[in-house]
Amino acid sequence: MVHQDGGWRGRLEAGRSQVALGLRAFGRGAADLLMPPLAHDSPEATASAGLTPDAWAKVVFLEDPVCDGCGAAFEMDGGAFASPRCAACLAQPYAFDRARAACVYDEASRGLILKFKHGDHQPFAPLFARWLSRSAAPLLDGADAVVPVPLHRFRLLSRRFNQAAEIARPLARRAGLDYLPDALIRQTHTTTQGGKSARGRRLNVKRAFAVTEEGRRRIRGRRILLVDDVLTTGATAEACARALIEAGARAVDLAVIARVRTAREMPT
């Protein structure tokens, strides 16, 4: 009798929960119809997942086929026997194993990323995380944990938030992966990478990153998904990947919001 009563009460509570969830979803939908959510890139209302239709149409999203090593788009599908990597990645592989980018870094995406990165426009974070959950799906499937590219504490104080961490956190949560924001640290306060040559970028971040003692324990033997905002020459991601691998990570993959159009080429 007690068992039957408990089962009946459990079903009743479950039914009430479902009704409550349905009402909340209905309320959110009604609110969006009456007061449509504002676009992140404009004060006007939008239904295009956070962007105005005009901005959405201009973003060049990267679709397969892409290079498995750096995420750059191939001009054509080479078929079943084509190499999954571009010539540059075959000749000189990165320290990270695989890479994916949600879109091309150009005039359309640059403004959105800079508004997020330097304009403190944090509503972009969940939007970019959704983009990455789609473009980096093959990497997320094989990952054990997510690590953001860190900022030095001085830069973090001036910027007030780490843009890579703001994307990595919801991305890890959506994928059900461990999120390790403090595993990797930036131990030297380097100058900005903007305007430097490929060689200058590599020298600027050489030995700039280190894994904490707690981080070593959390990453040892695991496949790590490293998250950053933009991939240009890959110098920063390369330095981070080397630090993680030297500390015991089994492998490192890279997911970024955007990358330059041509592999290992700075935008003009």
Description:
It is a single chain. The chain has 268 residues and is an alpha/beta fold. It has two domains: 1-35; 53-259, 3-Layer(aba) Sandwich (Rossmann fold). 45% of the residues lie in helices and 13% in strands. It contains eleven helices and seven strands. The chain has helices spanning 2-34, 53-58, 87-91, 107-118, 124-135, 137-142, 153-159, 163-175, 198-205, 213-219, 235-246, and strands spanning 99-104, 145-148, 178-179, 184-186, 209-211, 223-231, 251-259. The strands form two sheets. Strands 1-7-6-2-3 form a five-stranded parallel sheet. Helix 5 crosses helix 8 (163-175) and helix 9 packs parallel to helix 11 (235-246). The chain is globular. Residues 1-6, 19-38 and 43-49 have low confidence and may be disordered.
As a whole number of angstroms, the C-alpha radius of gyration is: 21 Å
Order of helices and strands: HHHEHHHEHHEEHEHEHE
Assign an overall shape: globular
Number of helices: 11
Q: Please mark out the parts with pLDDT under 50 across 5 or more consecutive residues, or reply none.
A: 1-6, 19-38, 43-49
Beta-strand share of residues: 5-15%
InterPro entries: ComF/GntX_DNA_util-trans, PRTase-like, PRTase_dom
Family: Belongs to the ComF/GntX family.
Pfam families: Pribosyltran
Protein name: ComF family protein
Topology:
Blueprint: H1 2-34, H2 53-58, H3 87-91, E1 99-104, H4 107-118, H5 124-135, H6 137-142, E2 145-148, H7 153-159, H8 163-175, E3 178-179, E4 184-186, H9 198-205, E5 209-211, H10 213-219, E6 223-231, H11 235-246, E7 251-259
Parallel strand pairs: 1-7, 2-3, 2-6, 6-7
Antiparallel strand pairs: 4-5
